[in-house]
Design a protein that fits this description.
globular, mainly beta, 39% strand, 3 helices
Length: 406
């Protein structure tokens, strides 16, 4: 740069003299302060020859949102559902093509201090018409539609004091610098919550319950996350009905996935640390294995936090396939997330905390990537988080579209 030339960054044109010549210099705009927006959003990469055809469904998780989005492989918006509630936390298409959705109810209760509050589940057609809804004040995270037509809900209940006192691990509740949870109300001091599963009819009648604290060992199944609060012991983040009716459930603070025998209530399979660290979304595969999004916030076998997706053989609890980035720190979602094995053998992954969906081959090569462009929340802390992202085929979307005509 020649001596004497001065350039000032500004939003307005400036005039300066350079070797007797008057120049007008416009030096760009104010820098975008949201890191994710600055890096770029929308479709980031697509190899149409190797990416799995279909449409991706997702619901941005911020309290002002009321929309579920559907995009094609080119990242173009092809459909959306306008719903009466914010995500609490996600939605998915049922086998008959309707949208099943967990919403965040407006009623104030003990769950209101947490970002994962639910309270209502509903079914909607292609046009967003609500066909029915069921409410439960203890509901959070997940609700699913069972094959018998009832709903199964993740709920939080108070752990009896004699059991709570025996639970190993965890930190006492306090005001978090991250503000992830709002301050604990005085009436909740010393109270411990854990999951129970509640099956309800569409009329809202409870017909079955399963309480985690009656089946988990407070020492062997204690809080594995070093900095997790003792307020939340076995807090569920996923439930899924298996073909024989058994329930596959995931608990983040204990870093445990379990299978519950629906007939007896007994835990018949369990996977925990060090294999898992704050995991989400265990999903059975056609080969009998289980795909898990392993968040990796507090690993007990590695000093570095990183996320990965693993495929587990439940007969041996052996990891038979892994996706992790290179270097591993390039892929990390401290909360939420899921993975889906696609029909062509690829895997769709949702790096939830950053609204990043990407598809990888069996060898771990990325063939599609999209960053959620829909942001919301406090002006100085906007987020594009997405609890789950799911890919659907052309045939599945056609079936969903047909629900508007039935």
């Amino acid at each position: 740069m020649s001596r004497g030339l001065r350039i000032r960054m500004t939003d307005h044109p400036q005039r300066t003299i350079f070797f007797g010549v008057e120049l007008e210099i416009l030096m760009s705009k104010v820098v975008e302060q949201n890191t994710l927006k600055r890096r770029g959003v929308g479709l980031r990469a697509c190899d149409p020859e190797r990416a799995c055809p279909g449409f991706t469904l997702f619901a941005p998780v911020f309290e002002q949102n009321r929309i579920v989005y559907l995009i094609d492989l080119q990242g173009e918006l092809v459909h959306s559902w306008q719903l009466p509630y914010a995500p609490g936390l996600f939605g998915y298409l049922t086998e008959r093509g309707t949208l099943f959705y967990s919403g965040r109810a407006s009623e104030d209760n003990f769950l209101s201090r947490f970002p994962f509050k639910g309270g209502v589940v509903l079914e909607a057609d292609w046009n967003g018409k609500v066909l029915w809804e069921v409410r439960h004040p203890d509901h959070h995270h997940i609700g699913i539609l069972l094959r018998n037509g009832n709903v199964l809900l993740n709920c939080l209940g108070k752990v009896p004091a004699e059991i709570a006192g025996k639970v190993k691990g965890g930190a006492e509740d306090h005001n978090l610098p991250s503000a992830l949870y709002a301050p604990q109300p005085q009436e909740d001091v010393g109270v411990m919550y854990a999951d129970y599963l509640a099956e309800l009819t569409l009329a809202g009648q409870t017909v079955w319950e399963w309480r985690s604290w009656e089946h988990l060992d407070p020492v062997a199944d204690g809080i594995a996350e070093v900095q997790a609060l003792r307020t939340l012991w076995a807090m569920g983040n996923s439930i899924l009905e298996l073909p024989n009716g058994d329930i596959l459930a995931s608990y983040r603070p204990t870093s445990t996935v379990i299978r519950v025998d629906r007939r007896t209530g007994e835990i018949v399979w369990k996977l925990g640390p060090p294999t898992l660290a704050g995991q989400h979304a265990p999903t059975p595969l056609e080969n009998g294995n289980i795909l898990i999004f392993d968040n990796g916030v507090h690993r007990v076998d590695d000093p570095l936090p990183f996320s990965r997706v693993i495929e587990i053989n439940p007969a041996t609890n052996e990891v038979v396939w892994t996706y992790q980035d290179r270097p591993v720190s390039n892929f990390f979602s401290p909360r939420m997330g899921n993975a889906q094995r696609l029909p062509n053998g690829n895997t769709l992954i949702n790096e939830a905390s950053f609204g990043r969906f990407f598809e990888v081959t069996r060898d771990g090569e990325i063939v599609w990537e999209y960053i959620n462009p829909f942001f919301g929340g406090p002006p100085q802390a906007e987020t594009n988080e997405v609890f789950r992202a799911l890919r659907y085929s052309v045939e599945e979307i056609a079936r969903a579209e047909a629900t508007a005509r039935t």
